[in-house]
Design brief:
The structure is a single chain. This protein is α+β, with helices and mostly antiparallel strands. The chain has 2 domains: 188 residues, Galactose-binding domain-like (Jelly Rolls), CATH 2.60.120; 273 residues, Zn peptidases (Aminopeptidase, 3-Layer(aba) Sandwich), CATH 3.40.630. The chain has 9 helices and 18 strands. Helix 6 crosses helix 9. The longest helix has 21 residues. 54% of the residues are buried.
Length: 476
């Protein structure tokens, strides 16, 4: 059993550079550990709210709601379509001819005409609401955030290596009908081209939390990486499992993920402590009610979701090469959050657990190396393939260092090695500050399969524990 001790010192926790976020610091006295620059644009939350304003006005002109069978829904489709067409998209209205509620309006599909058409990353949100109210959070929030991302992509017009497709679904509130119609009418070859589908349903809940669908999956890796960079410590979206349009894609074995901030389930005290808000109250107090108006929008959460969509889109599809590139590092590190047992990690795998007395950076499990207070070496490793087109690649992870040492001398160390070569080192000198994101440059190993190892070494007395979580490979 590992000894327990108080955390010492305080350090400023810096995160990956993104927009105005600062770059992660390299500890003094260590080997350089570069941080990947993340070049996705900042999405204007003011612009997202302007789309919400228009959806609200549409509902007000049409009986107070935007249900799939109403003029309010059809006017919502017209608004989104008009914005996309003006931005240069070719937009398709897809009538739902079977399985939808009688009189339901169409799905709206827009594809950006650049990048490899055999590698499609799809982003979707349901555009319809319930009869009870205008549906601003459910799901004006996801629809508006998605629209502004599509318009930003058109304005930026970057080089694309993969294809991006956007969708606004009909008849979700009546049983996920629009999205299911879309997926089941695709050919098997067309389905195979969709490498991941991302869903955004209720991303501005007033008392919300930060939830990700299939948070430990390869598809979720860039979504989690962005919210991790904000220190949000997101959780699995258990409430929304099987309840939104991502499920239509899951039924055909297409990888899915997405953001959500919660519906009628109640926030726990632990979540309120982590994210703020009121414990014991619903994430969205106006879920499926008339009060789901513009006053029912969490602008901070909406902003974080919109920017996370952009980050994910840029990571998965944007880059030089004009299509056909293979720099897609998502999932290169297996079980990077340690939530799925110990495989494929080898070495001192007993250090992986839901350790009592400490909180994981994400999820419930993490690796605790060291902390023994005696001469010891503990190590975890796995093989990682760095995609050949990733000319800039970084091993990114979260590290928390706790020590009983008081000297400025490095007695206990934590090293990152690749194929036996040391890339970066931290020690008891860098203790404090809680979870801090660190990284090591793997750009030199592009196109290679390498062994990545984390090793904690302690001297004969005074323990130092190195807590490791959420390991991933990321690229620029």
């Amino acid at each position: 059993m590992k000894r327990r001790f108080a955390m010492a010192g305080t350090l400023l926790a810096l995160v990956l550079g993104f927009g105005t976020l600062p770059a992660a610091a390299t500890p003094s006295g260590t080997s350089p550990a570069s941080t990947t620059a993340l070049a996705a644009p900042d999405i204007s939350v003011t612009a997202v709210r302007a789309h919400l304003d228009e959806l609200s006005a549409i509902a007000a002109r049409n009986g107070g709601n935007r249900r799939s069978t109403t003029q309010g829904y059809r006017d919502s489709v017209a608004y989104v379509k008009g914005k996309l067409q003006a931005a240069g998209y070719t937009v398709t209205e897809q009538p739902c001819t079977s399985g939808c509620t009688s009189g339901a309006g169409p799905n709206l599909i827009a594809e950006w005409p650049k990048g490899d058409a055999n590698n499609v990353y799809m982003f979707g949100a349901h555009l319809d609401g319930v009869s009870a109210g205008p549906g601003m959070n459910d799901n004006g929030s996801g629809s508006a955030a998605l629209l502004e991302n599509a318009l930003t992509l058109a304005r930026e017009n970057p080089d694309m290596r993969n294809r991006v497709r956007f969708a606004w679904w009909t008849d979700e509130e009546q049983g996920l009908n629009g999205s299911y119609f879309y997926v089941r009418t695709l050919s098997s070859a067309e389905r195979a081209r969709i490498k991941a589908y991302y869903n955004f349903d209720m991303v501005a809940s007033l008392n919300g939390g930060y939830f990700i669908n299939h948070i430990t999956s390869a598809a979720a890796a860039p979504m989690k990486a962005y919210w991790d960079s904000l220190g949000l410590r997101p959780e699995e979206n258990t409430e929304g499992a099987g309840r939104s349009d991502d499920y239509s894609f899951e039924r055909y074995s297409i990888p899915t993920s997405g953001y959500a901030m919660g519906a009628s389930a109640r926030k726990t005290s632990a979540q309120a402590s982590k994210w703020g808000g009121t414990s014991g109250s619903a994430y969205d107090p106006c879920y499926h009610r008339a009060c789901d108006t513009l006053t029912n929008i969490n602008t901070t959460g909406l902003d974080r979701a919109a920017d996370g969509i952009a980050y994910t889109l840029w990571q998965q599809a944007v880059g030089t090469g004009g299509g056909g590139g293979t720099c897609d590092p998502a999932g290169a590190v297996g079980n990077g959050g340690f939530e799925s047992g110990t495989s494929p990690w080898t070495g001192t795998t007993a250090v992986i657990a839901a350790h009592s007395g400490r909180t994981a950076h994400g999820g419930t499990r993490f690796a605790w190396l060291g902390g023994n207070g005696s001469t010891s070496t503990e190590s975890l490793s796995q093989t990682v393939t760095v995609p050949a087109d990733c000319t800039r690649a970084s091993l990114v992870f979260w590290l928390q260092i706790e020590t009983s040492e008081s000297s400025s001398r490095a007695y206990d160390t934590f090293t990152v090695r690749v194929n036996g070569s040391t890339l970066a080192t931290w020690s008891n000198v860098h203790a404090g500050g809680g979870w801090i994101q660190r990284s090591a440059d793997l750009s030199a190993y592009a196109g290679q399969t390498v062994t990545v190892a984390f090793t904690a070494t302690e001297d004969y007395s005074l323990q130092t524990g190195f807590l490791l979580d959420d390991v991933s490979l990321q690229s620029a």
